[in-house]
Design brief:
Largest sheet: 6 strands, mixed, barrel
Shape: globular
Number of helices: 0
Oligomer: single chain
Structural class: mainly beta
Distance between the termini: 29 Å
Amino acid sequence: MPDQKENAITTNNVSLQALPRGTRKSPGTYTYGAHDNEIKISGTFSGYVRGTGRGTNFTDTYGENSNILDKGDCATKGAIGNPKFGTEIRVRNTDNDIAANFYKADNGSLPDAVIDIWKTGVEKVGLSWASYVSFSARYSYDF
């Protein structure tokens, strides 16, 4: 009988290198960072990715396709889940229960966050933009 914790993977040393675009790590639960961030991957060829933990914002100018970033863009932790460019990602601010759709336009190391929203996009989840924003977040997308 397989160990019930077979799919539970805990890591505080997730590689900083992004996976190839459109891929994700094996099914399981990945935890990391000071805020106990958790990304759960369910399924291999089809399924979902769900992240719970800290949301932040970023201020880069260009994304992963040399695209100019815009309100509504976001970045995922590329070393765990690097969805295709333009994937719709549902983000919920669990501090105020406001949710909005964003589009994956970049990936990053996100050492202590599950999702990174570009600049003023944080307004879509009820926050005021500042050069640094942090909030309790949940995000998901299907593949």
